[in-house]
Design goal:
It is built from 5 helices and 10 strands. By secondary structure, it is α+β, with helices and mostly antiparallel strands. It folds into 3 domains: 16-45, no CATH class; 53-121, no CATH class; 132-185, SH3 Domains (SH3 type barrels, Roll), CATH 2.30.30. Strands 9-8-7-6-10 form a 5-stranded antiparallel beta sheet, with no helix packed on it. The longest helix is centred in the middle third of the chain and has 16 residues, at 98-113. The N and C termini lie far apart (84 Å).
Length: 186
């Protein structure tokens, strides 16, 4: 049997409640009575809140589509490919680090079991052609020159040296809209 010491917080099951005491409620917990003033709270008051798992709007849309017709976790992993579900494929399988992929797949299994754990994150800024941005990878200012639907590198930029790169939204920091006056380009 476990020994308890002063200050330990324990959980007991309440079998009976006595409200007749003028000093407050008493609770019967097996072999003794516990005064209301000694109760700290319910078990769930001391359990940490379940961690939310963040998903982009695009990932959530693909997740909802899969959830609408697949019930098995095994089947859903088999169903996700880079053509039909490119955002989830990139998240779950397209990493050079297998440890990262494993963590993401475990997180996916958690939300597959309980979709209430999903927290949809919206981009801080919806990039547009002509936006001035900071390329976080090369630490240079750049201008967005094209946008496509490829989730691995959806934004094409031209940096201050004229170098052109395709990058992810997460690799860019928005600075200013309409950095290019398109009338000057003609």
């Amino acid at each position: 049997m476990t020994e308890y010491k002063k200050g330990d917080k324990v959980v007991v099951e309440i079998y009976k409640v006595d409200t007749s005491d003028s000093l407050g409620r008493s609770y019967y917990a097996g072999k003794s009575w516990i005064k209301d003033s000694l109760i700290l709270g319910k078990l769930e008051d001391f359990q940490p809140a379940e961690e939310k798992i963040k998903m982009t709007v695009e990932e959530k849309k693909e997740f909802d589509d899969l959830k609408s017709y697949i019930t098995s976790l095994y089947m859903v992993f088999d169903e996700i490919d880079e053509n039909r579900y490119p955002y989830l494929f990139k998240r779950l399988f397209d990493s050079d680090d297998s440890g990262i992929s494993n963590i993401r797949q475990i997180d996916f299994a958690k939300i597959w079991d309980d979709p209430r754990r999903i927290e949809v994150i919206k981009p801080e800024h919806e990039f547009k052609v002509g936006d001035l941005v900071k390329d976080k990878i090369n630490n240079k200012k750049a201008v967005v020159i094209a946008i496509n639907d490829n989730p691995s590198c959806p934004i094409k930029i031209s940096n201050e040296n004229g170098a052109i790169h395709w990058l992810e939204k997460e690799d860019l920091k928005f600075i200013k809209s309409n950095a290019i006056n398109w009338e000057d380009v003609k």
